[in-house]
Amino acid sequence: MRTQVAIIGAGPSGLLLGQLLHKAGIDAVIVERQSPDYVLGRIRAGVLEQVATDLLDEAGVGERMHREGLVHTGFDMLFNGQRHRVDLERLTGGKKVMVYGQTEVTRDLMAARAAAGLPTVYEAANVQVHGFDSTAPYVTYDKDGQSQRIDCDFIAGCDGFHGVCRASVPRSAIKEFEKVYPFGWLGLLSDTPPVHHELIYANSPRGFALCSQRSHTRSRYYLQVPLTDKVEQWSDDAFWAELKLRLDPEAAEKLVSGPSIEKSIAPLRSFVTEPLRFGRLFLAGDAGHIVPPTGAKGLNLAATDVKYLSNALTEFYAEKSEAGINHYSEKCLKRIWRAERFSWWFTSIMHRFNDDPIMGKLQEAELDYLMHSEAGLKTIAENYVGLPLDFGGR
Ligand code: APR
Ligand code: PHB
C-alpha cells in the first residue's frame, strides 16, 4: 500500500491530523494497535480551549460539541475552606472554555473519518517505522496473521506516551525531560448531577480534589492519592466520603453521590521530548510530551501540535516548501514549554506534597495572594483559557 502520510495511532491526535489532512487533499492511512471500542473506553480530561474548539470546527467535527458541550466562563478555586471564582471571561477579554469529554471528541472524529471513507487499520500488531532518515520511509505491521507494508512520504507519530515512534529514534538524537510526581489522581465517573455548575479545584489539608463534569447529569471527580494506592482499595463509598472531607461545607452538603461508571488511578508526569522531528518522522501529542492533568492542557496541546503539522505538510505539498516542516519542532516546543510550566505550577500550588506544615501554609498564602490580586487572577486565567495559536514567543 502507498500513501502520503502514515499516521501511527488513532487517539485524538492521529484522528484530528487525518481529518485536517483530508480537508487539505492529502492522503493518509491511520494504523492503530487497539480496537475502536478500546480507544473509546479510555476516560480522559474534558476541558477544551477555544483554539481547540476552533480546530475541531475547522476539521468539520464541531457540530455535536456545540450542541452538547457546556460553555464555562469561569471556575472555582477552594482553599482554606473558602471558594473563590476565577472569572475567565472578564479576566481574558471574553475568552471561555468548552467542557466536552475527550471520549466524545474521539467518537466524533472516528465518525467523520468513517463517513468520509478514510482508511484506518485497527488492531494492527507489531507496528514498526522504518527509513525515516531517508525520503522513502515505510511502516510495517501484522494484521490477521499477514505482514503488511505502507510506503509513504512522511510518518506522523501520534501513538501516545507508550508508542513505538519515539522509541524508534536513536537515543543519541533525542533528549527527554521528565518529572514524575509523588502522587496520582483517583478519578470517578458517575451519572449524578455535578455538585456545582462550574469546576471546583480544591487544595485541602487532606490533598487536592477536583469536581468536574461531562454534562448536567454526569460528573467526574478526582482525588489526590498516594502512588501506592490501588483502585481496588477505594470503594465508591470511601471515595465519596473522602471527597466530602476535601470540599467546603456548602459543596459537601450539595454533593450527590451514586455508583461509579468508571474508577481509575492515573500517575502525574511532566515530560517533554526534544526535538519533535527526526527526518521524515514527526511526533505529535502524548508521543512527544505529557503534562499533569491540573489545568487540562493535554488534549489542547495535542490539537495545536497537529494543527502545526497539518499546516507544515500542506505547505510541503502545495508550495513544495520545507519551511513548515523545518520549523515544526521549534514552533511546537515553544507552546509546549509554556503549557508545561503552567501545568507544573498549577499542580504545585494545588497538591499537598508532604506533611511539612509550613509548605501547606505557604501554598495557602500564595493562593490567597493570587485570588486577591488582579495580576494573579489574570495569570491563572490567561493560561487556563490557553495561548493563541500564533503566539510568537510573546
Ligand atoms: N502502534 C499503533 N498504535 C499505537 C501504538 C503502536 N505501537 N502504541 C500506541 N498506539 C495508539 C494507542 O492505542 C492510542 O490509541 O496510539 C494512540 C495514542 O492515543 P493517546 O494516548 O490518546 O494520545 P494522543 O492522541 O496524542 O492524545 C493526547 O490524550 O492522554 C491524553 O492528555 C492527553 O488529552 C491528551 C490526549
Ligand atoms: C476532567 O473533567 O476530567 C478534567 C477537568 C479539568 C482538569 C482535569 C480533568 O484540569
Structural topology:
Blueprint lengths: L4 E4 L3 H12 L4 E4 L4 H5 L6 E2 L1 H9 L4 H6 L1 E3 L1 E6 L2 E6 H4 L5 E3 L2 H14 L4 E2 L3 E6 L7 E6 L2 E6 L2 E4 L6 H4 L7 E16 L9 E5 L2 E7 L5 E8 L9 H11 L2 H6 L5 E15 L2 E2 L2 E3 L5 E2 L7 H22 L3 H28 L6 H15 L2 H12 L9
Parallel strand pairs: 1-2, 1-12, 2-8, 5-14, 12-19
Antiparallel strand pairs: 3-7, 4-7, 5-6, 9-10, 10-11, 13-16, 13-17, 14-15, 15-16, 17-20, 18-19
Helix pairs in contact: 1-6, 1-10, 10-11
This protein binds adenosine-5-diphosphoribose (APR) and P-hydroxybenzoic acid.
The site of adenosine-5-diphosphoribose (APR) has 29 residues, from helix 1 and helix 10.
Description:
With 394 residues, this protein is an alpha+beta fold. It has a domain of 237 residues: FAD/NAD(P)-binding domain (3-Layer(bba) Sandwich), CATH 3.50.50.60. It is built from 13 helices and 20 strands. The strands form 4 sheets. It has an 8-stranded mixed β-sheet with strand order 6-5-14-15-16-13-17-20. Strands 8-2-1-12-19-18 form a 6-stranded mixed β-sheet. Strands 3-7-4 form a 3-stranded antiparallel β-sheet. α10 runs antiparallel to α11. The longest helix is centred in the C-terminal third of the chain and has 28 residues. 43% of the residues are buried. It binds adenosine-5-diphosphoribose and P-hydroxybenzoic acid (PHB). Adenosine-5-diphosphoribose binds next to α1 and α10.
Which terms summarize this structure?
394 residues; alpha+beta; FAD/NAD(P)-binding domain; eight-stranded mixed beta sheet; six-stranded mixed beta sheet; 13 helices; 28% strand; globular; binds adenosine-5-diphosphoribose; binds P-hydroxybenzoic acid
